[in-house]
Amino acid sequence: MRDKRFHRAEPGTVRPGGRTARVRAAVLRTAGDILVEQGFGGFDLADVARRAEVGKTTVYRRWGSVTGLVADLLADMAEQSLPREETGSVLGDLRANAVLVRRTLADPRQGALFRAVIAAATCDERTAQALRRFYEVRVAEWAPCVEQGVARGELPVGTDAEEVVRAVSAPLYHQLLTTGVVPDAPAAERAARAAHAAAVAGVYVG
């Protein structure tokens, strides 16, 4: 079940149906296109409405602001993300997580979207909050893999499952943001192995 905290009180985050759903999909697709092309600095609700062929009033009424629209875009991205993969071992699960993160960052559209949103989050608190909620959803999705590993005796009792999951993706995002180089398959493997070794050693206990 998805973490419903992500959908609280942010304009545009209530999932609509019918025509309203089609309008939301068109606006979110267009918003993503503009972020990829121009970054956050070129983001304007009126431009989104024009390119999505949706009434400007509709966009302003439903999302209220650029940050409200970005929050909904992140909510949609979280919902569309692939579910966790369970391989039967903690290391296998962490590898699967690392592969998924690497594929996302390597994707021309998704990678560019994340770079634009992360850049915006450094100077806009509402965007930063939306980004934090996005990662809360994704980390909560994968944390059971670590919890199951604890139950199987692969990891020490008291291991912080969410911290282990974050430790897998952290070096991959760091590489992309600090060097501009998309992580490759060996980088994903190193990230998974490093997080697993640290967890086995008890680094994330307590």
Structural commentary:
There is one protein chain. The protein has nine helices and no strands. The protein is mainly alpha-helical. The chain has two domains: 4-66, Arc Repressor Mutant, subunit A (Orthogonal Bundle); 81-200, Orthogonal Bundle (Tetracycline Repressor, domain 2). Residues 1-14 have low confidence and may be disordered.
Topology:
Layout lengths: L17 H21 L6 H8 L3 H8 L2 H15 L9 H17 L1 H14 L3 H27 L9 H19 L5 H16 L6
Keywords: DNA-binding, Transcription, Transcription regulation
GO molecular function: DNA-binding transcription factor activity; transcription cis-regulatory region binding
Organism: Streptomyces muensis
Give a short summary of the structure.
The chain folds into two domains: about 5-65, Arc Repressor Mutant, subunit A; about 80-200, Tetracycline Repressor, domain 2 (Orthogonal Bundle), CATH 1.10.357. The protein is about 70% helix and about 0% strand. It is built from nine helices and no strands.
> Any low-confidence stretches, pLDDT <50, length ≥5?
1-14
Largest sheet at a glance?
A: none
Helix vs. strand class: mainly alpha
CATH topology of the largest domain: Tetracycline Repressor, domain 2
| CATH architecture term of the largest domain | Orthogonal Bundle
> Rounded to an integer, what's the Rg over CA atoms?
18 Å
How far is it from the N-terminal to the C-terminal residue, by CA? 26 Å
Number of helices: 9
Helix-strand topology string: HHHHHHHHH
DNA-binding region: 44-63
Pfam family, one: TetR_N
GO molecular function, one term: transcription cis-regulatory region binding
Protein name: TetR/AcrR family transcriptional regulator
